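Progress against Task 2.4 (sequence-to-structure conversion) is shown through the following example record, which the project officer requested during the mid-term review.
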Amino acid sequence: MQNQEKKPEEGQKPEQEQKPQSTPQQTKKERPEECVVCNKSLKKRWYYREGDYYCGKSCWKKAKKSKEKSGTESEKTNEAK
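C-alpha coordinates generated for the chain above:
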Protein backbone atom coordinates (compact mmCIF):
# COMPACT_ATOMS: atom_id res chain seq x y z
CA MET A 1 0.00 0.00 0.00
CA GLN A 2 1.15 3.48 -0.71
CA ASN A 3 1.14 6.29 1.84
CA GLN A 4 -0.99 9.07 0.43
CA GLU A 5 -1.49 12.38 2.17
CA LYS A 6 -4.99 13.74 2.28
CA LYS A 7 -5.19 17.14 0.65
CA PRO A 8 -7.89 19.47 1.88
CA GLU A 9 -10.49 20.50 -0.63
CA GLU A 10 -10.91 24.12 -1.57
CA GLY A 11 -12.64 26.18 1.11
CA GLN A 12 -11.49 23.91 3.94
CA LYS A 13 -8.66 24.73 6.28
CA PRO A 14 -5.79 22.26 6.38
CA GLU A 15 -5.44 20.37 9.61
CA GLN A 16 -2.82 21.92 11.81
CA GLU A 17 -0.05 19.70 13.00
CA GLN A 18 -0.32 19.08 16.68
CA LYS A 19 2.83 20.04 18.50
CA PRO A 20 3.59 18.43 21.83
CA GLN A 21 2.69 20.76 24.64
CA SER A 22 5.80 22.18 26.21
CA THR A 23 5.65 22.06 29.97
CA PRO A 24 7.00 25.14 31.70
CA GLN A 25 10.20 24.34 33.47
CA GLN A 26 9.98 24.98 37.17
CA THR A 27 12.94 26.78 38.61
CA LYS A 28 13.73 24.59 41.53
CA LYS A 29 16.19 25.99 44.00
CA GLU A 30 19.04 23.54 44.21
CA ARG A 31 20.94 22.82 47.37
CA PRO A 32 24.34 24.56 47.39
CA GLU A 33 27.53 22.60 47.93
CA GLU A 34 28.87 24.84 50.70
CA CYS A 35 27.61 26.39 53.93
CA VAL A 36 26.47 30.00 53.57
CA VAL A 37 28.42 31.15 56.66
CA CYS A 38 31.67 29.16 56.82
CA ASN A 39 31.85 27.57 53.32
CA LYS A 40 32.22 24.02 54.64
CA SER A 41 31.15 21.17 52.38
CA LEU A 42 27.51 20.04 52.66
CA LYS A 43 28.01 16.61 51.13
CA LYS A 44 26.88 14.43 54.05
CA ARG A 45 25.08 16.67 56.51
CA TRP A 46 23.17 19.88 56.13
CA TYR A 47 20.89 22.10 58.17
CA TYR A 48 18.11 23.98 56.36
CA ARG A 49 16.55 27.00 58.04
CA GLU A 50 14.90 30.18 56.76
CA GLY A 51 15.59 29.46 53.10
CA ASP A 52 19.34 28.78 53.41
CA TYR A 53 21.55 25.74 53.93
CA TYR A 54 24.07 25.60 56.77
CA CYS A 55 26.59 23.01 57.96
CA GLY A 56 25.09 22.99 61.45
CA LYS A 57 23.01 24.75 64.04
CA SER A 58 25.92 26.92 65.17
CA CYS A 59 26.35 28.47 61.71
CA TRP A 60 22.61 29.07 61.50
CA LYS A 61 22.71 30.92 64.83
CA LYS A 62 25.66 33.04 63.63
CA ALA A 63 23.78 33.98 60.49
CA LYS A 64 20.62 34.74 62.46
CA LYS A 65 22.54 37.03 64.85
CA SER A 66 24.23 38.87 61.99
CA LYS A 67 20.87 39.37 60.23
CA GLU A 68 19.31 40.73 63.44
CA LYS A 69 22.29 43.00 64.00
CA SER A 70 22.19 44.37 60.46
CA GLY A 71 18.41 44.82 60.77
CA THR A 72 18.70 46.89 63.95
CA GLU A 73 21.47 49.02 62.45
CA SER A 74 19.36 49.83 59.39
CA GLU A 75 16.45 50.79 61.67
CA LYS A 76 18.71 53.17 63.62
CA THR A 77 19.86 54.87 60.42
CA ASN A 78 16.24 55.30 59.28
CA GLU A 79 15.31 56.91 62.62
CA ALA A 80 18.26 59.33 62.40
CA LYS A 81 17.05 60.70 59.05
